[in-house]
Design brief:
Length: 77
């Protein structure tokens, strides 16, 4: 089942939103363009469709190959 065919419950959607919002905060000004944001969303949905529900891991996966390693590391509160 592809990410496009997967239905998520409201709790999971809330987790995916957190992961996406946090990933977007890590983008540099020049990266905050629709195509990059769409790529982040697709990567999060792809991983979530495989069963991942940890927002920190979803965010990290989404940002792989998008944000340089010099980007500030944010910690969970």
């Amino acid at each position: 089942m592809s990410a496009e065919d997967k239905a998520f419950d409201p709790e999971t959607l809330a987790i995916l939103k957190v992961a996406f919002d946090e990933a977007c905060l890590d983008l540099g000004p020049g990266q905050r363009i629709p195509s990059v944001r769409a790529n982040l969303a697709q990567r999060i949905l792809s991983k979530a469709s495989q069963g991942e529900r940890d927002p920190v891991r979803l965010r990290a996966y989404a940002l792989m190959n998008v944000v340089p390693s010099t980007t500030r590391q944010r910690t969970a509160s």
